Amino acid sequence: MADFQTIQAGQDEIAVRKDLRVPMRDGVTLAADAYQGLDDKPRPALVALSPYGKELQALALTTPPQRRPSPMWDGCIEAGDIARVVQEDYVHVIGDLRGSGASEGEHIGNYNAGGVSLGQDAYDFIEWVAAQPWCDGNVGMIGISYFGSMQVIAAAERPPSLKAIFVSGGHYDFYETTYHGGVMWFMPRAAREGRGGDSGWAFTDGVKSRMLETYSAEEIRERVAKRLQDPDVAAWPNLFHVLNYPKNHEAWFDIVMNEVDGEWYEERNPVNLARNIDIPVWLQIDQGRGWTMDGTIEAYNALQGPKKLDIGPYPPMQSRPFIEEHDKMFRWYDHWIKGIDNGIMDEPAVTVHVEGSREYVTGAQWPPKDVEYKSLYFRPRRKLSFEPELMAAEHAAPDGFYQAPLTVTDKVEILSWSTEAFTEPTELIGQGAAHLFAEIDQPDTNFILRLWDEAPGGKRQLITTAYLKASHRELDEERTTEGDPYHPHTRAVPVEPGRIEEYVLRIYPFAATFLPGHKLVVELSNDEPLADEHNALLPPDAFHLPVGRPVTHKIYRDAAHPSRLVLPFTVENR
Questions:
Q1: Is 67 inside a domain boundary?
Q2: Is Zinc one of the keywords (predicted)?
Q3: Which pLDDT tens digit goes with each residue over 159-177?
Q4: Which of 123, 294, 334, 473 is most open to solvent, judged by the fewest CB atoms within 10 Å of its CB?
């Protein structure tokens, strides 16, 4: 059994088995490294799988954890603290997914949707690990973001040796990961290409575009030409480049080419797969990037076995190497894998950190408290009020802004409205809706809404966000309820210029208490500001695709057009 080498990890020595070859059922082998204590005994294993490269993850042994906005922060070092895993007496097994790093095979499409299922590979990988003499037959998984999503994909295959998973910062519905309200998000580009604080995928010739594998060269040319008819895409150099040279970044090409939801994204959608999972699952997410909270909650509700939901405090980005949730993770695995009765299942299923009060609220479900939806109406003079506007449009003239494309300006126009200062603590927990009665002079635009908690001295913290591409305004009326809108995003319907329409934006889940003296401020734009208090905490490429055409926006908020926020106030605030 003693076929390992020893390496230094701080003041300790640990053992590592390098470049293990893990056979898949189709004959392809995946590459892996396994880290453990020096005494050669069987241990439970924690498996980490991604396309980011196992060697990159080993920097956790030598790089102190970095927080944004440190320039040394690397978003792809996500497999966890190797030394800590070994100290807790687990084997840390880090593998390269098919077609990436040192592994064989082809990785076709995002989540390998067009080739061999990554869930199938994960099943084979986990069962191989469990059968090794250095493993006691019990396996969990580790890692955030892509690694976290792989945990859900793996657990849905139900490998017998996988006893539990602990997912932090995962992304689930892949369409909603890459198009927020239909608006393209650039972060997946960074994670795949390696840009602005991300090393990117460990690309090989085995990483291939599903689009290029599926369609003929002529069909690709036709589809690319159609995609370039979108002025947002045509105006953005990176997208123009990737559409003309898709071989440069094949995985990103697939995302750009599929701007609406449907079979492309639903195949092996982790939210749908979660319905097959009956082992214990802990899902954790931090506040500040609402769409990841939304997906986490949706996945949590789909799970069939013992489960916990843990929503942590702002800011949204964890350190790299990732260490923040290790104490909770080891309590979880000590209980479910090592059989230690540590009382973790006697604690509430849902724990939510409430911004503002800095308190934790617990309950049996999301939201953990009963809520009452109340409307805050947009009013003249940039006010938000619980009372609706009584005047007609000729007296309560619309607010408006003109946004030139960022190709000709670096100024992002922003409208804002705010409440009066709260006189008593006011708690809101849940998701919500923004109803905007708007008129635009183009067939499309973005509506980007950001909600802030503004303190008396002017210091602000982002609470949550909402996005909607105007052409994606269609609602699923059967799934939509008060304060909880649902957009199918299966087609884009151009807007009739000059027509007033009601746009309903989904306000992503959040939890916040507005303290006395604080105000709720809502900002509306069609592009994101290039720098502000929140964006400095995100990787440089964590922005959304700007609008590529000049657009004039009029926001009506009069008696006939009740533009408003519908927000979840906890019942204690009645």
A1: yes
A2: no
A3: 999 999 999 988 888 898 8
A4: 334
